[in-house]
Design goal:
The chain is globular, with a radius of gyration of 13 Å. Helix content is 16%, strand content 44%. It is α+β, with helices and mostly antiparallel strands. A hairpin with a 2-residue loop joins strand 6 and strand 7. It has one domain (3-94): Hypothetical Protein Aq_1857, Chain: A, CATH 2.60.300.12.
């Protein structure tokens, strides 16, 4: 299962409405690359037949079959601080990562 905090859901809902994409889900996947081996990729998309779909505060999270083992138990959050803001992923499957927080080792 992949989850999302209420803060992230509120922010995502706002973005979906601004971009007129309310019917779409948030696709989160793992792709090879980045300075630690794997990178996260998030985009708005329609569900596919082979996707695993999770409900997060009324929003759809879409995860493909290949990414699910590396994202199982992950939580998407949104953090805002002075000078920086963005979505973060707390991933219990990450054995290590880089300073930017966008890539990890499995």
């Amino acid at each position: 299962m992949v989850t999302m905090t209420n803060t992230a859901a509120e922010r995502l809902r706002s973005i979906l409405e601004q971009e007129n994409q309310s019917a779409k889900g948030l696709r989160i996947r793992v792709i090879p690359g980045g300075c630690s081996g794997y990178s996260y990729d998030m985009t708005f998309d329609d569900a596919r037949e082979t996707d695993h779909t999770f409900d997060a505060h009324g929003l759809k999270l879409l995860v493909d079959t290949e990414s699910l083992p590396l994202l199982q138990g992950a939580e998407i959050d949104f953090q805002e601080s002075f000078g920086a803001s963005g979505f973060t992923i707390k991933n219990p499957n990450a054995a290590g990562g880089c300073g930017c927080g966008k890539s990890f080792q499995a």
